[in-house]
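Chapter review: from sequence to fold.
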Amino acid sequence: MTAPLIQRADSAYGYPLLIKQLLHAPLAHAGEQEIVYRDLRRYNYRSLRERIGRLANALAACGVGPGDTVAVMDWDSHRYLECYFAVPMMAATLMTVNVRLSPEQILYTLEHSSAKVLLVNAEFASVVEELLPKLTHARTFILLDDSADAPVGRVPFAGEYEALLAQAPAEHRFEDFDENTRATVFYTTGTTGLPKGVSFSHRQLVLHTLAVMGFMGSSAPGQNLHRGDVYMPITPMFHVHAWGLPYVATALGLKQVYPGRYEPRMLLKLKNAEQVSFSHCVPTILQMLLAVPAAEAGELQGWKIVIGGSALTKSLAHAALERGIDVWAGYGMSETCPTLSQAQLAPQAHALPEDEQLALRTKSGVPLPLVDMQIVDPDMKPLPRDGKSTGEIVVRAPWLAQAYFDNPEASRSLWEGGYLHTQDIGSIDANGYLQITDRLKDVIKSGGEWISSIEVEDLLQRHAGVAEAAVLGIKDEKWGERPVALVVARANQDGALTEAALKQHLMAYVESGQISKFAIPASILLVAAIEKTSVGKINKRALREYHADAFGAK
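The token string follows.
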């Protein structure tokens, strides 16, 4: 017999999970805490709440109401943080524009999302000017300007952000509404086809925030995120809400530092001046930071950095640890809001030898609370959690995208079989640690054997002369596919790094049984740079096409 529902008094408050609810605690206990934008502006949480109200009133005066979409083109800033709250709290939708896309792709995302108002950093005014004749939804433009004298061309701006806020009242009553209301939408940066819209509701974002807070707050001391930390994102705020961490940092009442456009020396200057202790970024950004000489970089001790977007290699993790950065991997994707797992060390793991610690730090980690993560075969049957059996990673959690925005065809395959399909291949060990071995589309199938491109990349980067590596599968008549590699040499190699030397380096891992001889790339090409996507991931599709002739693809 089903138990009766508990009746609620007529006066009880239903408490919908809305983004505005994340502000209650920090305003109560951290009202004087600072929010810093580069070396240009600083204010406290009480001012943040006032500015959120002013922004909502300014947007309402521009005609924004429930259900409307407001798009933002900016670097990481206090303005973006204010938009993270004000726009969804109006029951409108925040659309975060990937400013690194081509003008044509930016136009597609603005049109597909039906963005009505567009907030534009002066640096992107020329892009918007180019798109003006083709925009059919955006009618109101607001200027975001640090210098107050940047050229803005012929964009018909309704006003400048700070001036509009100054004119608007600080009081704005944010009403309750359905927690399943869409809060945000952004567009994936896949390497094939048009960008796909991914949207999240208030309920999903609040649950993601709470799960990340709980997981990271319960991690071992030294790798946890707590109220004494100073937070600075180094993952674009236009991409998956900067991994959701600005919402977490605000809910905790942390001091927050927003760096604008990413410039290694500015990031390091802010780290030291503001005593930043917690950040997150992709491997390429970490490599940029480590490339700054120690004498110029300053003190990096006490800096905790989560790495995602691409695999954290042992060589990169070791280099970061040597400079005093406590680093570990996280895992997720655009469609998962994004965090699914993280690889902080368990308390007992701090006593392990360095190699064993590195092996744990560079895994994809253990799942957050409420995450149901499975490894399955092509028939969706679960595989053993033995650390060896590999299959596709499928997940369930209450914050996962339910569908692609206005794209039913792509949505059908996303949730086939009742789990979200990540298209990643991996294994899970007996302790629950996930290890990504490759993307489904990037695993190399050679002569009946599956070769992990991620593993070979890691081994190549353990060579002292290698700064970066990408391993690709190239079609081959005999073997189906064969691995090839692109390698960027470290500075001052002066021709010492050769294809023969790199193959000899990999042969040591063949002899130790770590990889098979078929994993040694058929060709290794030394290049000046490796092409990335707009969010810093290696663009393997573009690399295959661009270097097909050099590798003699058949």
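Two observations follow directly from the output. DSSP finds 19 helices and 25 strands in the chain. The radius of gyration is 24 Å.
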